[in-house]
Amino acid sequence: MIDKVFEVLEKTLSTPAKEWLVDQTNSIANLRGTKALFLAFSLVSRQPNANQEIEFDGSIWNQEALSRLYILLKFQESHLADEVIRTISLMADTSDINEEICLNKSYQYLTTPEAYLAKVRESCRTNVVPIFESVAHGNPYPVRYFDEEGWNQLILKALFVDSTLRPILSYKDRFNADLQIMLIHFAEERMAADRPLPADWWYAQVDKAGHPDVQKIALNIHDRLSESEKADVRQALLAAGSPISEELKQLYTV
Q1: 235 and 147 in one domain?
Q2: In this structure, are 182 and 250 located in the same domain?
Q3: pLDDT score at 170
Q4: Tens digits of per-residue pLDDT, 2-38?
Q5: Do 80 and 130 reside in the same domain of the chain?
Q6: Both 85 and 135 in a single domain?
Q7: 117: DSSP letter
Q8: 3 state DSSP class of 211
Q9: Is there a single domain that holds both residue 7 and residue 100?
Q10: To 5 degrees, how large is the angle CA 194–CA 228–CA 134?
Q11: DSSP structural state of residue 164
Q12: Pairing of strands 59-62, 53-56
């Protein structure tokens, strides 16, 4: 993996930036302690074109984040596992927003990714959408390491912060009965407070829009919806895995 990361960086980094990265990672590998790691991880943001986007492993990174991943992998390569876990956990505790985003995307590539589960779950509790989405969107970490409770909280949090569910990997595969109940309670609370449902609430139903409580929500909310929102409901009803009422069929022209 480390060679693959450097191969991608080699094609995009300027010569001075590449030389700087090699010098820094050599220092990390040769020196005991963590000072060189923390210094390089912080200073990489000052390199030219740090925000230039790069495609890596099927997702979009930037030079800054991918260089930080390379730094982490070089540190891991030359240090004992317990020291790596302890140091990167400390790094997560002191990180700024961009550093936390990078760490969330990087854990999956480390030797013991499950060791950082608490850090990732903590990122999922934030209201800072870019941090939340660094875990939720296009990241296999949640589907691999979250238990059902953690997974369900991730989905509900996405709705609370109005983040789309569609880039969440394996969402449909991990849909479960408890999540269905939580989604229904979420909708009922929103309606009682006269607040709109997030755009992706109907997408969240997968093929469960035939559930009696979901049908009841569709009936009660119809008059509050825009035409585009009604189209979302219609699509969910069309995908329902169980029969829907005639009244709903007429309301939403299903």
Answers
A1: no
A2: yes
A3: 95
A4: 999 999 999 999 999 999 999 999 999 887 678 999 9
A5: no
A6: no
A7: H
A8: coil
A9: yes
A10: 80
A11: -
A12: antiparallel
DSSP 172: G
Q: Are residue 170 and residue 202 in the same domain, yes or no?
A: no
- CA proximity to 57, closest of 8, 92, 95: 8
* Residue count (the chain): 254
Residues 54-78: tens digit of each pLDDT: 999 999 999 999 999 999 999 999 9
CB neighbour list of residue 104: distance below 8 Å, 6 or more residues apart: 120, 123, 131, 134, 135, 139, 141
Domain that holds residue 165: 112-174
Q: How many domains are contained in the chain?
A: 3
Contact 254, 248 (CB under 8 A): yes
* Segment holding 188, helix H or strand E: helix 177-192
Q: Which of 94, 109, 124 is the last residue of a domain?
A: 109
> Where among 126, 159, 174 does a domain terminate?
174
Same domain flag for 68 and 136:
no
